[in-house]
Q: What sequence folds into this?
């Protein structure tokens, strides 16, 4: 069976690593991103030895945009049987100064986007009789000062993951979530800069608190996502798997 995957927010960072890893498995991958030029650059940079890759513009928080993007993927590559909900944003602030607009943006992209994309893609999975949904959560789901919006969105994704695993299991669709700890990406580099540190300084400080004494890298997440998207994980569903270099309390 020719398999087609959609990876949202995959123009860079974890999403791009996931897309590249799935391509290595011979899976055709649609790189969905709100930044079309960046998505095109990502596609151009992938090794062509594996599956086909195509870039599609999407605003995951907009229902019409999501439907149009999924339809475009189905037309170009075929019906998607794998969905990786990776698109996300942060707008960090303590609750006293967190604006309603920043609350809404983070909830809309991270949580609403995961819902809308899953709703659209599972229609194809139901017809295929097979599917894999992998949602990107975060260790922030258990709470993190300065991230009330992000923590709430990621906790919501974990609840959504478990519920969808129950609802979609009879359709032979597994639904799991990967919850990374600190991963060296452009997003975490921006957080470091906001705190007045270089990326290297910030990573060194964080690594000292991690049992494995290093921060994560996008490929660490990509390898696990590839497993969850494969037939090897056919009896794994409804799980939240932390990738954080140590236990998460």
A:
């Amino acid at each position: 069976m020719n398999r087609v995957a959609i990876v949202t927010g995959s123009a860079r960072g974890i999403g791009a690593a996931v897309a590249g890893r799935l391509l290595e498995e011979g899976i055709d991958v649609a790189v969905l991103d709100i930044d079309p030029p960046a998505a095109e650059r990502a596609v151009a940079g992938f090794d062509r030895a594996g599956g086909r890759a195509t870039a599609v513009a999407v605003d995951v928080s907009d229902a019409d945009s999501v439907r149009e993007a999924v339809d475009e993927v189905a037309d170009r590559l075929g019906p998607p049987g794998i969905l990786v909900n990776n698109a996300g944003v942060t707008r960090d602030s303590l609750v006293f100064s967190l604006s309603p607009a920043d609350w809404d943006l983070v909830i809309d992209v991270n949580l609403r986007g995961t819902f809308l994309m899953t709703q659209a893609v599972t229609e194809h999975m139901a017809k295929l009789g097979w599917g894999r949904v992998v949602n990107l959560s975060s260790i922030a789901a258990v709470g993190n000062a300065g991230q009330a919006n992000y923590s709430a969105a990621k906790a919501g994704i974990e609840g959504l993951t478990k519920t969808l695993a129950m609802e979609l299991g009879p359709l032979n669709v597994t639904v799991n979530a990967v919850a990374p700890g600190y991963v060296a990406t452009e997003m975490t580099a921006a957080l470091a800069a906001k705190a007045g540190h270089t990326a290297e300084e910030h990573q060194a400080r964080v690594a000292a608190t991690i049992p494995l004494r290093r921060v994560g890298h996008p490929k660490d997440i990509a390898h696990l996502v590839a497993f969850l998207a494969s037939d090897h994980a056919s009896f794994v569903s409804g799980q939240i798997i932390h990738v954080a270099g140590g236990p998460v309390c």
